[in-house]
Amino acid sequence: MSAVNKNKVVWNIFYILLIIIFVDILASFLGVEIDKNNFFRFLLLCIPVILLLLHSFFTLSFVRGLFFIILASTVGLLMEMWGLKDGVVFGGHYVYKQNQLALFNVPVSVILYWAVFIYTGYCLINSFLVWLKYTKTNL
């Protein structure tokens, strides 16, 4: 797949995500509980992860992208385990519902979203460095 096609795929998925978020916000304002629909909830939770996977594989390569995602997910899992144990780091003690797929009492969706947030931060920092014309030799 060419770089232009990869870019189009990522942007199209991003636009779909924006539409889904807009529909969710609009439904909330109108008092419609659309987030109780399993298909809509699946889309709302999975599209950011799909976007993370595709973007990281296209920009970093498959191996580096996978390594980054595993590393970010591991950091997220450790932070959540620490938060569940002590509760001090995240502002108080909290627990998750027990009826979801979990690893060490941390829902898999939370672990994946840590990877999404960390990767988003990485992309923002990388964009600023490119904008400021920093190269690897300048750092």
Helix content: over 70%
- Overall shape: globular
Domains, number: 2
Widest sheet, order of strands: 1-2
What is the average per-residue confidence, as pLDDT, rounded to a whole number?
86
Radius of gyration: 18 Å
Largest sheet: 2 strands, antiparallel
Please, could you describe this protein's structure?
The structure is a single chain. The chain is mainly alpha-helical. The protein has 2 domains: 1-60; 61-139, no CATH class. 71% of the residues lie in helices and 3% in strands. It is built from 4 helices and 2 strands, in the order H-H-H-E-E-H. It has a two-stranded antiparallel ribbon with strand order 1-2. Strand 1 (102-103) and strand 2 (106-107) form a beta hairpin. Helix 1 runs antiparallel to helix 2 and helix 3 crosses helix 4. The model has no long low-confidence stretch (mean pLDDT 86).
